[in-house]
Amino acid sequence: MKINSHPPLSLAWFIWSLCALFYLMGFFQRVAPAVMTRELMQDFGIGAAALGNLSALYFYSYVVMQIPTGVLADRLGPRRLLSLGAFIAGMGTVLFALAQDILWADIGRFLIGGSVAVAFVGLLKIAVNWFPPRYFAMISGMALFFGIVGAVSAGPPLRMLMNSFDWRSVILCSAGITFFLCVAIWVFVRDNPHERGYADLIKPEIGKAGRDRYNVLQGLVQVVKHRNILLLFVIPGGVVGCVLTFSGLWGVPYLSTHQGLSTTQASVLTSTLMVAWAVGGPVFGWTSDRLGHRKPLYLIGCLGALAGWLVIVFFTGVPVPVLFFVLLLTGFCSGCMVLSFAFGKESVPQSLSGTVAGVINMGVMLGPMLLQPLVGLVLDHLWQGSTADGVRVYKLEAYQTGFSLMLLWLAISFCLLLLTRETHCRQVA
User: Fold this and answer.
1) 290 — phi, psi (to 5°)?
2) Quick one: which of 200, 367, 404, 414 has the fewest CB in 10 Å?
3) How far apart are alpha carbons 357 and 157 in whole angstroms?
4) Are the beta carbons of 235 and 361 closer than 8 angstroms?
């Protein structure tokens, strides 16, 4: 082995994949409440607003952690952050699974969100350190793919497991998997190729000496000086907010109440949206890299997603095959949001890659963080007193009013995207 040789892609993919599995588990926890809304409402005696808050607590802590996570990934390296994050995520999952009242469940969700917040930024930092730059947009899409696999496993498979086991036992098993990943990441993952005896792929200024030149506040100030970053902080939240508010919480009760589907069938349809999202991410990233443009593809994806959501929300009585196709198209177009990370990375100096990833990922999670509880508040406000098995039932008009908030943010995202400056897939800063 020669120190001047770059690491083989097989080793880079192995190290990256271990971290991606932690991101997968984080996405599983993010979406799991969507198929257990009835059980959670019954166990804790709560309505839509409290359930929305329980789910959104994951995002509250997730968002708060993004900026310090991004800067710490630059300063300390992703290995320690990912290992510690996986350990705390496992503890939070145990607490959520064993909670006997809503307060402890809320604390568990809060711990899970704050700890898995390191996963995506760590993945992007590993990608910067271990892969040639031309792979970055595609790897960002692959990261989303891993996450959506976790989300899909929290759909029909989780629902089927819950038909045989109670939700607490299933969530407790997921905690065991997370603890296993904590150990695996600590043992096998390294921050840079030179720690495995290979030549580093990044320039010296983003090594430790470069990281020591700025503190958390200075790094953040440097990032937000760039116009693209301010816009990209808001834009992806509209895309992701729609997907995770629908598939992550309110889509299953909406489809089962107003499309005549069973809970299992509704979870299959919402998982369809997530699968298409997973496929769309790598496709948008790869296509963008090949064409040498970020902005046009991002605009096309946003417009397609907006059209799809208009059909899903406001066209009632749509045949299930047509609804299935529209969900596929909407999810695929939503994959355009992965371009935010390559777009942002190319808009700032390379030494700030972790910081900019944290800032943009914070904006990504603002969408579901705000929209999930807001939709719940609208549903409770427009609730007319109907219940089924002790769980509130909401009218179609209530869902349409709540979902309109999602469409508004997505429309704003499209308009803001028009104001961004194209990078042509090059490091322009």
Assistant:
1) -70, -40
2) 404
3) 31
4) no
What is the arithmetic mean of pLDDT over 30-40? 83
Report d(CA 95, CA 111) in Å as an integer.
Answer: 9
Q: Which helix (H) or strand (E) holds 288?
A: helix 263-291
Q: CA-CA distance, 324 to 270, in Å (whole number)? A: 9
The pair of three-digit structure tokens given for residue 429, joined into one six-digit string: 């800063």
Backbone angles phi, psi at 391, to 5 degrees: -115, 135
Average pLDDT over residues 378-394: 83
CATH class name, domain 9-190+204-417: mainly alpha
Alpha helices in 76-166 (DSSP H): 78-98, 102-130, 136-153, 156-164
pLDDT digits (tens, 9 = 90+) for 283-299: 998 899 888 889 999 99
Residue 3: predicted pLDDT? 57
Query: Cβ neighbours of residue 159 under 8 Å, at least 6 residues apart?
Result: 35, 263, 264, 267
The candidate with the shortest Cα–Cα distance to 378, out of 237, 192, 254, 295, is 254
Confidence of residue 216 (pLDDT cuts 50, 70, 90): low
Hey, where are the domains in the chain? 9-190+204-417
Q: Are 93 and 80 in contact (CB under 8 A)?
A: no
Structure tokens that stand for 283 in this block: 């496709």
Closest to 295 measured CA to CA, from 413, 381, 177? 413
**Higher pLDDT among residues 224 and 87, named by residue:** 87
The H or E element that residue 192 is part of is: none
End-to-end Cα separation, the chain, in angstroms:
35
CA angle 126, 220, 217 (to 5 degrees): 115
Across 340-364, average pLDDT: 82
Tokens representing 221 are: 């100030």
Tokens coding 76:
């300390």
What global pTM score does this model have?
Answer: 0.72
CA distance 110 to 104: 10
CA distance 342 to 290: 13
Beta strands in 296-420 (DSSP E): 387-388, 391-392
Tokens 């503190």: give the residue: 215
Euclidean distance between CA atoms 403 and 392, whole angstroms: 18
42-57: burial string, b at 16+ Cβ within 10 Å, e else: ebbebebbbbbbbbbb
